[in-house]
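Write out the bound-state structure for phosphoric acid mono(formamide)ester.
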Amino acid sequence: MAEIEQVPHILSAKQFDTDQLGDLFERTDFMADKMRNSEPIDCPRRLGRNAVATVFYEPSTRTRLSFEAAAQYLGLPILSTENAGEFSSAVKGESVEDTVHTIGRYAANGAIVMRHKEEGALEHAAAAGSEIGVPIINAGDGEGEHPTQGQLDLYTIKKELGTTEGLNVVIGGDLVKGRTARSLAILLSLYKDNHVTFVSLPELRIGDDIKHHLAETGTSYEETEDMYTALKDADVVYWTRLQLERHDDEEKGKEGICLERNYVIDQAAIQTMEDDAILLHPLPRNNEISRSVDHTRQAKYFNQVENGLYVRMALLDKLLRAADE
Ligand code: CP
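---
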């Protein structure tokens, strides 16, 4: 089958530039205003089989439900398999490519939002999507990336601080397995004068590929195990959980890999931060942010969750329009 050119897949944070993100965030503001004011959203869209399919081979609360809510609020039908590894025909050995070709018959004018535990699976899905003209959105691929999470994280930074430039951003926790930190670091590298401080145990450090990317783009960064010193100068603190499901049993058993030992954001940690700094987390959290700080002025992670809905409404809207161009 001939490949259909320029299917607007969303696979990596690296595919975006500041103009595209600016347009996306403008549309996100539009969606947020409409939703908060309970106003109708006039979004001319493709007709016919315009469903949004959510195909998740890994668990999710926010990503799947926000994409599904976004589709519903835009008036698009939803096709969903929330545990595709068990409840789809993947169990019977069906490939990702055949799954995409099948869903494409029901959602030819829509999009497929996919999360997969294996890095690279989304590229296979996108190759199949290109054959039939259906965009694939990466909703998290193994230890790779989670680009739409990076977008909503960046949008939240912009909304809360009024800028995405000249920021001291502390990214901490499990950076070796956490894909959201990777996508956010890539997006931050698009803007001038950002400085990223990665805080983690040595065995949880962010991958060399991300460090190379920051170096290549002229984005300054450092790595430290000292959370308290890093928090003092931060404009943004982006904290992440230990990705237990991605560490093997031997690693989990190590005392040293326990984030609770040194890396809990509690009242003492919050008091180290500036009053106008913000604390973000992609969620879910375990114990690495104490619930006792949820009502501090710095805690913005539930704003981040809500922003995810508006960003994904804007993304779907732009994606389905672009597919027509
Ligand atoms: N942030 C995020 O990806 O959350 P879920 O795993 O609940 O989708």
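---
DSSP finds twelve helices and nine strands in the chain.
The mean pLDDT is 92.
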